[in-house]
Amino acid sequence: MTLEDSNMHTFGAELPAMFDGMKLAAVATVLYIIVRCLNLKSPTAPPEITYQDTLLSRYLLKSCPMLTKEYIPPLLWGKSGHLQTVLYGKMGRVNTPTPCGVRKFLPMQDGATATFDVFEALGGHSTGDDITMVICPGIGNHSEKSYIRTFVDYSQRQGYRCAVLNHLGALPNVELTSPRMFTYGCTWEFAAMVGYIKRAFPQTQLVVVGFSLGGNIVCKFLGENRSNQERVLCCVSVCQGYSALRAQETFLQWDQCRRFYNFVLAGNMKRLILSHRSSLLNSSNIGDADLSRLYAATSLMQIDDSVMRKFHGYSSVKEYYKKESCVHYMHKITVPLLLLNSSDDPLIHQSLLAIPRALAEKMPNVMFALTQHGGHLGFFEGAVLFPQPLTWMDKVIIEYADAICHWEKNQPACHRSSHRDGKCCQQSTGETLSG
Questions:
Q1: What is the pLDDT of residues 246-305, one digit of tens each?
Q2: Is the pLDDT assigned to residue 104 strictly greater than 50?
Q3: What domain range is 214 assigned to?
């Protein structure tokens, strides 16, 4: 046997071991990618709570254990903000109920028709009072979305009447009656719904709830006019971005795939606008050039600049974002306000979370809860793989609302009005709780 033959024989004997090593390296690489993408090493923790040390905040932290206990998402995928967000977007919720409501139509002064659905409570509230949840969904959403239906059904069973705004132009098969649809911060339709509820149920008190874009609308609505806070017990805002101008700037970045989410949301918004083309695009404010820009748009900012700002006559998209963002109105809210966000929400840049944190540090009626996981409107709970029908978000909103209702019920009559004016909250130093 020659030396060359001997080397080939030795090399051939080593091949199986080399292939086994390559297989192990490939498996290890795949597992590493899975662990990183699914964020499996991230520990679960209670929400980080920023608040002023007042009698009310102490009461809330005792009465709302979900705000101080660990939020535990499904083990295999729940620690990924992307998967939580995508699963919510594609599936909405698990075993979605179908609550039965009555649809209302309200003509507006400009010819538009506001629509909302009213769902009666399925039992008495624990306080014995008549309380209505007035709910504003996320962008392009309405009462038929599965996450809204799940929350409404749960609220009804806890004794709340629910009124859900259907964003103007969002409902399929409901035509617009004027050349205008919902926009980022227009509160007209929500105000019309709240006004109807107050007239139709003169004894009811209100709990205001907003999801994502709806969170901006409800906070702006409450801060626009002091009278809008009459008969309002509290407000809860979930997964909003607080400042449209700053949010849209971050939406152009590729970090956390926000540019991709922006592209997808822009496509959905474009289809919604074009489904009402005959009603919207024949107005004097929107011409052929705007339509061409709309077709070419790949971001929400481009759509807002070419079409949405013109519904309200703004001269620039910057002016539109500035005037329509709730960040300029929230300091005028005096009722208890809970702001909920998730650290791994791929749509909300971390810099935007400085807004609610600073607000909670300065205002005694504001509490800011930031979870480690949850994505955008996900907040699924579950042991390993399959999520539960109710989410952490659904349960914590009701827990907070119940606590506020009982707090208000137990206040002396002379203190109730002062509480709504923000006078009974004894301001001290700001605190932050984190797990």
A1: 999 999 898 889 999 999 999 999 999 999 988 887 666 788 888 899 999 999 999 999
A2: yes
A3: 48-243+328-433
Q: Residue 283: how many CB atoms within 10 A of its CB?
A: 13
Q: Is 27 contained in some domain?
A: no
Q: Report the chain's mean pLDDT, rounded to a whole number.
A: 88
CATH number at residue 412: 3.40.50.1820
| Model pLDDT, residue 423 | 45
Q: How confident is the model at residue 6 (pLDDT cuts 50, 70, 90)?
A: low
In tens, the pLDDT along 187-214 reads: 999 999 999 999 999 999 999 999 999 9
Claim to verify: residue 367 and residue 419 sit in the same structural domain? yes
Residues 156 and 298 in one domain: no
- Out of 296, 324, 352, pick the residue that ends a domain: 324
Residue 346: other Cβ atoms inside 10 A: 20
pLDDT band, very low/low/confident/very high, at 82 (cuts 50, 70, 90): very high
Same domain, 104 and 160: yes
pLDDT of residue 29: 44
Burial of 51 (0-12, 13-18, 19+ CB in 10 A): buried
Q: Residue 101 is encoded by which pair of tokens?
A: 């409501």
How many beta carbons lie within 10 A of that of residue 219, not counting itself?
Answer: 30
Cα angle value 339/168/217 (rounded, 5°): 20
Task: Indicate the SS3 state at residue 398.
Answer: helix
CA distance readout (Å), 159 to 84, 121, 153, 170: 29, 5, 10, 28
Q: Are residues 308 and 416 in the same domain?
A: no
Helices and strands, counts by H and E, the chain? 15, 10
Q: Are residues 107 and 212 in the same domain?
A: yes
Q: Read off the amino acid at residue 408.
A: E
* Dist. CA 141–CA 121, nearest whole Å: 22
Q: Are residue 95 and residue 109 in the same domain, yes or no?
A: yes
What is the number of domains present in the chain?
Answer: 2
Same domain, 116 and 230: yes
Catalytic positions are 212, 345, 376
Stretch 118-134: mean pLDDT? 97
Q: Which of 324, 357, 382 is the last residue of a domain?
A: 324
